Amino acid sequence: MNSYIFKKETWAYTLFFVCILLILTLLLPLSAGFPKNDFVVVLDYGNGPEKKFTGKLSGGISAWDVLQQASANSIIKLEAAPDFYPKNIDSWENGRWGKNWTLYINGNKVSQEPINVSINNGDTVLWRFE
Question: Residue 35: pLDDT above 60?
Answer without folding.
Answer: no
